[in-house]
Amino acid sequence: MRIRRVLSTAALLAGVVAAPALLVAAASPALADASPSASPSGDGSAPTEAGTSFRTATEIEQGVQATAGASTGDYLYWQFAADAGQRPTVKATVKLPEASKRSGTETWQIDVYDGLRRRQACQYGAQTRTAGADASSVELSCTLRTVRAWSEPWANDPLPGTYYVRLTATALGATDLGLPMSTELQVDSKDIGGSAAVDGSLAKPLVPGIAVTSAQSEDTSGDSGSKAAVLSSLRPDGSNWWSDRWVWTAIGGVLAALAGIWGYSLTRGRGRPTRIPPGA
After folding, report:
1. How far is CA 242 from CA 35, 138, 139, 177, in A?
2. What is the b/e burial string over 245-262, where b = at least 16 CB atoms within 10 angstroms of the residue's CB?
3. 3-state secondary structure the chain
4. Residues 219, 225, 228, CA angle at the centre, nearest 5°?
5. 140 and 164 in contact (C-beta within 8 Å)?
6. 113 closest CA partner among 182, 70, 51
7. Mind listing the pLDDT tens digit for each residue in 58-88?
8. Which residues on adjacent β-strands are paired with residue 91?
9. Nearest Cα to 89, choosing from 53, 124, 51, 46?
10. Interval 175-209: pLDDT, tens
11. Calpha distance 84→36 (Å, rounded)
């Protein structure tokens, strides 16, 4: 009987230990499909120009390098979509005019704003840099905080939706204004996963024109031929219910079950001694 109990317990422990591996294996395709990513509209071609204001900001996709030619002193704007669980990084390279035509050093800066045009702080990166008088280019970068699926109204946390990038020179000589320059800009994101998951989500992403679209949809719900105004085609995919937190929760439950079985085996004793008859 003791051998049978030992074998039964060993089989139970083996099944409990194998459960996390099976769960992770089954969850792998779901994790691949559920990873948040931005899905702007378009054919994925790289833009070759930039906007001059928030309303005319050029739409770019993540992972695509955008280029633009402009004059020194211009404000250049781009916009991209970011979803919950992503940590976007904006990198810009400014190719400066010829050193012989410049009067001295130039300071360049990139700023990132969310869909409500709130300036987002850079978690790290060289957001502002000064190019020397003989420099041919200057590189800037800004890594935002992880985009949250939901936040308090008073908070300034990054939320899913559209983000604006503004590039401009903040300090340069008066004679340098108007000199031709060119820029390269690219946005990439790192998927943080379940460590950034929160309980809650936005009803609508922070996309320009979403309030106008919702209002017109309510007013003209009976008119099938009406069209709501949409100021941007950039929209994130939307967060999926799946998160790798489910895997870690399951592993924690399995470890708790093993600890319970081990504790029970320590406290249950060895059973009735063989020297005591069953009827005693």
Report:
1. 9, 41, 37, 51
2. ebbeeeeeebeeeeeeee
3. CHHHHHHHHHHHHHHHHHHHHHHHHHHHHHHHHHCCCECCCCCCCCCCCCECCCCCCEECCCCCCEEEEEECCCCEEEEEEECCCEEEEEEEEEECCCHHHCCCCEEEEEEEECCCCCEECEEECCCEEEECCCCCEEEEEEEECCCCCCCCCCCCCCCCEEEEEEEEEEECCHHHCCCEEEEEEEEEEEECCHHHCCCCCCCCCECCCHHHHHHHHHHCCCCCCCCCCCCCCCCECCCCCCCCHHHHHHHHHHHHHHHHHHHHHHHCCCCCCCCCCCCC
4. 50
5. no
6. 51
7. 999 999 999 999 999 999 999 999 988 899 9
8. 141, 186
9. 124
10. 888 999 999 999 999 888 766 666 666 777 777 76
11. 7
Task: State which amino acid sits at residue 84.
Answer: A
Q: Nearest 5°: phi and psi at 100? A: -70, -20
| Side chain identity, residue 164 | Y
**At 198, phi and psi to the nearest 5?**
-130, 160
Q: Which range has the worst mean pLDDT, 219-223, 239-243, 262-266? A: 219-223
**Angle, in degrees to the nearest 10, between helices 245-267 and 2-34:** 170
Within 8 A by CB and 6+ apart from 15, the residues are: none
